[in-house]
Q: What sequence folds into this?
């Protein structure tokens, strides 16, 4: 199962594939308890494996765990949250 981690130095959440490579990421900016998720990308070699959804869920779970809220500037993240009611509570007012 791929692992999602917060690479704070690079300001992005990363999904690490079973082969140990970073398969994708969500770029973000943090400010005042809010994480603005700006761009999501999955590497070409990893497309079609469902990693985008796993990355979204993992990144949002990390944000929830730290008690922050989300601004989904990235259309992929916004669409994912729209489809998953149990994550809509993370949206910043």
A:
């Amino acid at each position: 199962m791929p692992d999602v981690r917060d690479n704070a130095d690079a300001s992005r959440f990363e999904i690490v594939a079973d082969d140990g490579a970073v398969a994708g990421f969500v770029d973000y900016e943090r400010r005042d308890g809010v994480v603005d998720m700006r761009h999501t990308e999955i590497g070409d070699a990893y497309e079609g494996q469902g990693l985008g959804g796993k990355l979204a869920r993992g990144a949002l779970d990390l944000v929830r765990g730290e008690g922050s809220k989300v601004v989904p500037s990235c259309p992929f993240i916004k669409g994912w949250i729209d489809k998953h009611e149990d994550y809509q509570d993370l949206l910043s007012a």
Q: What stands out?
A: Strands lie at 3-7, 12-16, 22-31, 34-42, 69-72.
